[in-house]
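Recall the central idea of this unit: under ordinary conditions, the amino acid sequence of a chain determines the structure it adopts. In this exercise we apply that idea directly, starting from the sequence alone.
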Amino acid sequence: MENFKSGFVAIVGRTNVGKSSILNKIVGQKVAVVVDKPQTTRTMIKAIVNRENSQIIFLDTPGIHKPKSKLSLAMNDTAWNSIPDADVILFVVEATSEGIGKGDKMILDKIKEAKANTILIINKIDLVKKEHIFNLIEAFKDEYNFKAIIPISTIKKPDAEIILEEIEKNLKEGPAYYSKEEYTDQTLRDIASETIREKALKLLQDEVPHGIFVEIDKMKKGKTRENKPIFNIEATIYCIKNSHKGIIIGKDGSMLKRIGTYARQDLEKTLEEQVNLKLWVKVREDWINQEEFVKKFKTTD
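Accordingly, the structure predicted from this sequence is:
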């Protein structure tokens, strides 16, 4: 097709600024874990948007934060490495920020270094006065020549379309890298693992923040007694302390049952098949500093 455009778009920002929610809304499918806690996205998830004259591949990067473990370092490296490699950057900041903070300044410096085509998204504008938004826009304008600055609150379909149009303007002509039916490069095992972890993060107390990792032990398609298709999934939730294990399981297994129920319901919607989900919990002390586990979250592209 003549004048067809394609390219890779990295969504970058500090932790908990709303990157994954923006991605899910733009794609129209749930491809990124959305939890109101920092450091949720651990790997670079590709999501694909097919338009009439373009194919846009999004990279939802981990939130940039002060690293405290080998896992944290790997997450930050994934985010930093995406900036020079992307065709367009979506730089997401919070409208509640008092000017350009230290974290945003670090990201901005990397963008300047790469001379990247960047669209600034100012998220959560419903939480502040218009004058504050105007001042924030002016502060960022003085720092870099953004291709566009788009203020949004809870992202709606018209906002998503504006963002997509701005991205398309800044892409070069190129081929479609994926078929039009695809919307993510995640495997079914990836999706199952992330769905279980999302439900655990939403339900667990703050004292079990991000020291959990979900591994899919088995995922096979079978038949029910009524001869209907069913996914049989077995997964292990790893945590770093015995005390955390007790919290994840809950009294008489109540918390683990809730995690399993919500994850199963979500997976049945995603897979469009019945799901039989079995969960176990194991302690793997300090796994966030063990290379064999951390390498699972490192970008190999």
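Residues 136 and 142 are 10 Å apart (CA to CA).
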